[in-house]
Each structure stands twice: as C-alpha cells, then as structure tokens.
C-alpha cells in the first residue's frame, strides 16, 4: 500500500471507531477517498502534504465535468474536508488545504440525540454488583457528565480527575487542555469504582490510567464502543447510538436547559464557536415544541 492509501485507511478506521458512522456512510466515504487518491496519483502527488487547495478544487471540477451531480460533489467535499482535518489533527500535515473551500448550504446532520429518559436508561444498564459493571457505569456517567470524546475518556489518567472539587482535566485535540465540571452522579460512580472495583481489576498491577482493562492497560475505543452498543440494545433504545451520541446529548441538554453557548463551547473544547452552534437547532426545536405544548395559542 502507498502512504496515501495507509492514511485513508487510518481515517476510515477513525470514522468507524471514534465517530461510529454507519456501514453505508463508511462505504460512501471510502469511495470518495479512493477517487481522490486516484486523482492525486494521476497528478503524481506522492506525499499528502503536497496536496493544496487548488489541487482539491481541480478534483472537484473534474468530478463535475465527469457528470457528477451537485449533491454528489458536495458529499465529496464533505469527505475531503473531514479527511484533511483529520490529518491536521493527527499532525500528518500542518494546514488543512480543504478548509477554505465552501461547503454547500444545509450543513451536516447530527447523529441521533438521546433524550433525558433514554440517557437515564442507558446509564443504569451496567451491573454494578460486578467490578467491570462498576467501571463501565463510571465511564458512561463521565462520558455524559463531561461531554468527552471517547478517545479522551479511555486515555484519561488517574490524576486527571479531582473528585473533591468535582472536575476532570482533559487533554483534547491538538494537545489542548481543558477543565470540565462533573456532577454528583459521576462523582459517586467514579468514587465507588476507584475504591472497590479498580483495585480488583488491576490485580496488583500499577497503571496511570483511570479506567483499566487487562494488565492495567486502557480500554480501546473499539472495546468501549461495543459495550455501549450492547447497553443500548439492552435498554431497548432504537436510535443509532455511538460514543459521540452522549457528547451530542450533553451539549444539547445543556442548551435546552438554558446554558450559555460560550460555556458549552469551552466544555466541549471547540476552538471555533461555529462548531458548537450546530447544536443550537436542537435547542430551538425543543423550545418550539414547548411553546406549542404549553402556550394557549401555540
């Protein structure tokens, strides 16, 4: 495999295990990336760092000239923007050549957001009579309480959680650190896990990670994703659930409750507030439904 193909595979794995995208969506992204890499090879581009904005535009124009419709071209651009953004995030390239190319109006759809009842059902699924159940319960609770990415959750260090002050220190994208408060429910479940379950799971091993698997190693993103799907199925939740669903739910529920958008931006670790604004349509829809339900002339 060429270095370009390897990077494409890494991105598709990220979409599967970090973002939890559907098989059909992954197939579409894979097809788009294959066409783009073929175009780069035709242009004798051997290193992804040599792909620049004009070259990406030439590819999009070539697709249009080949008879691809506007929606398909827009999807290609969405795929490429995600791919190059991922490469910047992984420090493979220094700047994103697709960033300056405008997306079509309409934006991207969010994954399904859980309502509060569904979140409560999900968080109560682990069997807390067992050490693994206590660990899983604490992980689920913290994921929702702090709006973490799954990679941030599984790589969390033991010393990153301050239960006395009720906050967690997170190393996010681009090695940027943020501090996020956690609630009493998360505090209690983490405390119970640390004091009763973690020593049993470690079996005399020493680990810097808060949530441990075998031999004190952290759980993989794939392993946690499988657990989440299992609990969602047990809870009878029909929506497509991924680790990111709880992050989306965290942001949406805060905004529905009247939280300031800037505060949510800080807690999510978004550099640009426009990224956080994708959640506001959910809050607006919630307000519209409340108005219809309770206003005398709604």
Descriptive tags:
mainly alpha; 57% helix; DNA polymerase, domain 1; hpI Integrase, Chain A; 298 residues; three-stranded antiparallel beta sheet; elongated; 2 domains; 13 helices
Characterization of this structure:
The chain is mainly α. It folds into two domains: 3-89, DNA polymerase, domain 1, CATH 1.10.150; 116-289, Intergrase catalytic core (hpI Integrase, Chain A, Orthogonal Bundle). The protein is 57% helix and 4% strand. It contains 13 helices and three strands; from the N terminus they run H-H-H-H-H-H-H-E-E-E-H-H-H-H-H-H. It has helices at 3-17, 23-42, 53-65, 70-89, 116-123, 131-146, 150-154, 184-202, 221-234, 243-256, 261-268, 273-276, 280-294; strands at 161-162, 167-171, 177-181. Strands 1-2-3 form a three-stranded antiparallel sheet. The termini are far apart.
Write the SSE topology.
Elements: H1 3-17, H2 23-42, H3 53-65, H4 70-89, H5 116-123, H6 131-146, H7 150-154, E1 161-162, E2 167-171, E3 177-181, H8 184-202, H9 221-234, H10 243-256, H11 261-268, H12 273-276, H13 280-294
Antiparallel strand pairs: 1-2, 2-3
Helix pairs in contact: 1-2, 2-4, 3-4, 6-8, 6-10, 10-13
Provide a brief overview of the structure.
With 298 residues, the chain is mainly alpha-helical. The chain is built from 13 helices and 3 strands. The N and C termini lie far apart (60 Å).
As laid out across the biggest beta sheet, the strand order is 1-2-3
Number of strands: 3
Number of helices: 13
Determine the N-to-C terminus distance.
60 Å
The CATH architecture of the largest domain is Orthogonal Bundle
Query: What level of helicity do the residues show?
Result: 55-70%
Q: Low-confidence segments, ≥5 residues, pLDDT <50?
A: 106-110, 294-298
**Main sheet specs:** 3 strands, antiparallel
The succession of helices and strands, N to C, reads: HHHHHHHEEEHHHHHH
- Quote the CATH topology of the largest domain: hpI Integrase, Chain A
């Amino acid at each position: 495999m060429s270095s370009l193909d390897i990077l494409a595979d890494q991105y598709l794995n990220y979409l599967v295990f970090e973002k939890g995208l559907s098989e059909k969506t992954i197939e579409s992204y894979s097809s788009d990336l294959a066409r783009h890499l073929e175009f780069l090879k035709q242009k004798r581009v051997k290193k992804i760092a040599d792909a620049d904005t004009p070259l990406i535009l030439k590819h999009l124009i070539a697709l249009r000239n080949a008879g691809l419709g506007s929606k398909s071209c827009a999807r290609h651009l969405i795929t490429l923007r995600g791919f190059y953004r991922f490469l910047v995030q992984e420090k493979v390239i220094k700047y994103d050549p697709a960033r300056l190319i405008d997306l079509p109006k309409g934006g991207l759809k969010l994954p399904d957001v859980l309502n509060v009842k569904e979140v409560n059902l999900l968080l109560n699924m682990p069997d807390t009579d067992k050490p693994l159940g206590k660990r899983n319960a604490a992980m689920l609770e913290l994921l929702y309480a702090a709006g973490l990415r799954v990679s941030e959750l599984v790589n969390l260090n033991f010393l990153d959680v301050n239960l006395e002050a009720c906050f967690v220190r997170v190393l996010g994208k681009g090695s940027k650190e943020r501090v996020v408060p956690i609630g009493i429910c998360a505090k209690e479940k983490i405390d119970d896990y640390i004091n009763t379950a973690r020593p049993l799971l470690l079996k005399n091993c020493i680990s810097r990670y808060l949530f441990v698997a075998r031999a004190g190693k952290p759980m993989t993103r794939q392993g946690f994703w499988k657990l989440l799907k299992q609990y969602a199925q047990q809870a009878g939740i029909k929506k497509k659930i991924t680790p990111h669903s709880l992050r989306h739910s965290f942001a949406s529920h805060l905004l529905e409750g009247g939280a300031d958008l800037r505060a949510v931006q800080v807690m999510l670790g978004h550099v640009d507030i426009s990224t956080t604004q994708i959640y506001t349509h959910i809050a607006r829809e919630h307000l519209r439904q409340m108005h219809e339900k309770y206003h005398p002339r709604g």
